[in-house]
Records
---
Amino acid sequence: MAPLPRRSPAGPSTFIILCEGAFFEQLGLRGDFSCTVGDGYFELTIDYPISIGQQAFAVTATPPAAEPVDNSFYIKLIDTDEEVIDAAMNIQGLQIQHGLPMTALDLTWSNSEAGQRSTVSLGFELVSDLPELNPPVLHELVVQLPPDFSQQVTNALHIEWADKALPYAQATPAGLLDGPLMPVWLDATDPSRLNIFLDEAAAEDLEVGTYRFSFPVVVPALIPAYNVFTVTLCTPPPVNATYTLCTGAQDRQPGPGVVPHHRIQFGGDTPHGPEGHRRQRCLQDG
């Protein structure tokens, strides 16, 4: 048995961290754990030896009003003798965005069987009006799938909106080619993500409410440790730059909104939100 480890992640001290109860997502971690928050860091003590492979967890954080000068994070793995046995330092944080008050909707799905097709439903809620002066320019919505999941969108009918729908672009962005079956507002060439192009002018007047949509995926044979679907709203690329698709939260052009959705796991009940079945945030092993 390896010594029981302790993870000690830290970031700018101006972030407010909450990691107890519902504020913590276990994701790929096993066993029980406790979390302690300090000034600019938190410690996660785990009662189960960490196995070889990827690990993942999530905590709730409130970012500061302005981006800190040093917007970087680190994570250390410490054993019971207080020795650092591994670490990742100087992890650059995302740019802090303003002007789009939004929260993630619960992730729902139709099937969680390994290797089978499933319909996932996700989205966001716009909780207040966009600012009248200089509203954010919304050019593109990107859905990033967890590793080893693959989206199965082959035509426009595979994208279904349950509540309000985002305004689609009326033409494919310059520099991209239309697919034979794809509408001008959709790019599904990468199985690990979806790109939906928006009408920038119409998006300036988004109504308060929920924007939930669904699409088909294939569930992998093994659920990855980082089992998170991410929705990112991206700004336009720089003027006169060669057009490239926004790839998500780590892209050069992420917009003012990034929302994560946790998570599909094998077994148990199947929440299927758009049809009114039971909804839940994560499905535990059955």
Note: The chain is about 0% helix and 35% strand.
---
Amino acid sequence: MKTATLRPFPGSQHSTDHTSFLSSFHQTPSFATSHPKKKQAVISITPTRPSRSRRSVQCAVRFRPCIDIHKGKVKQIVGSTLCDSADDGSSLVTNFESDKSPAEFANLYKQDGLTGGHIIMLGADPTSKSAAIEALHAYPGGLQVGGGINSENALSYIEEGASHVIVTSYVFSDGQMDLERLKQLVDMIGKQRLVLDLSCRKKDGWYTVVTDRWQKFSDLFLDWKTLDFLASYADEFLVHGVDVEGKR
């Protein structure tokens, strides 16, 4: 899986003017992140110093593992084929399904000293949840977890061993970001344990954040203003280029 993980500058200060923040959603973005998909790799982008007129960005590439879980199995799928209406998985295009359990992969990553990887539950079924927790137990503190995360279960995943929880759909309502929900999560688990999934698809020439298994467009454009504002609420951003996710 090729994704982009963006880590906000830790000392930056950001305005909390909600009106100006929401209005920026409707401006043409000046920054967007999208990467074609091949193997599991991540690009970490870390601003080296804040500046009002110019931002200095240092880019580095490092390997971050990913465990995608669907119906309790580790799979590599075409992300755009995820669909709520087909819970039986009949519309899902699967490139690969492993005979190893998520916990076995977690053990491998632990042995190799790979940190910052993520477990993604592609569905809220009990089998996938159980498999994710087993993987967290196998590598406590070494993996992030996402998929159906909300205020009711976020802390429990941290207690099960997740280093971070990854959140998307919960902080959106009717296509708009719910800032109060986001603040609630930050107050509950801390900014340092929260990853915002800002995976996007192209719409009218703009990279737009998508939610609900990447099927619903929000009104949030992925530009530098969005990243700058949200950096106050998350330790990292996780960005998938949904239009090419899983495609060969």
Note: The first strand starts at residue 2 and ends at 6.
